[in-house]
Amino acid sequence: MLHGEKVKSEHIFGSDHDCWDVHTNKDRYWVITSPTNLYSQYYFRSLDYSLSFHVGVMARIMARQRGAPDDAQKARLTPVWRRWEKAAETLDTALQLPDGSSSRLVEGTLPRQPAVLGTLAIWKSADGTASHWK
After folding, report:
1. I need a labelling partner for 56 at 20 to 30 A (CA). Which of 6, 14, 19, 131 fits?
2. Residue 36 and residue 54: Cα distance in Å, rounded?
3. Residues 6 or more apart from 124 whose CB is under 8 A from it?
4. For residue 34, which of 5, 48, 14 has the smallest C-alpha distance?
5. Closest Cα to residue 77, out of 64, 62, 67, 87?
6. What is the pTM of this model?
7. Among residues 69, 41, 54, which one has the least CA distance to residue 15?
8. Residue 48: which H helix or E strand, with range?
């Protein structure tokens, strides 16, 4: 990477999307977060078009991944699935709370640390007493 510049941020469908103009020695890219993907500026000339494309594709991907694919799979993975759904609900709630108050809510919810869910990262200290938001 030769150069990277954050161009804009937008809040769309409950997610923050940061848009970066990234230059490499071979090409230029639009890098868009939540989840992060890159688009060659050779094919995607407009950032606005790229962001619209990104949001549409990510919405379709997330719609396919939401929930258990079928009842048989959910039955086999009931305990794990229950923890996953609880963690997702807790994350949604925590992201809506004012700064600082959400760390108490998420404490102890996730089965292992470090864990990454979307743009939220949680680390536990070796003794398991402290959590940090980044």
Report:
1. 6
2. 9
3. 113, 114, 130, 131
4. 14
5. 67
6. 0.51
7. 54
8. helix 47-65
Give the separation between CA 91 and CA 102, rounded to whole angstroms.
9
List the strands of the sheet with 131-133, edge to edge.
Answer: 115-117, 120-124, 131-133
Tens digit of each residue's pLDDT (9 = 90 or more) over 28-44 = 999 999 899 999 999 99
Q: Name the 3-class secondary structure at 11.
A: strand
DSSP, res 18:
E
Question: What length does the chain have?
Answer: 134
Question: Could you give the C-alpha distances from 75 to 34, 69, 87, 111, in angstroms and in order?
Answer: 30, 11, 19, 20
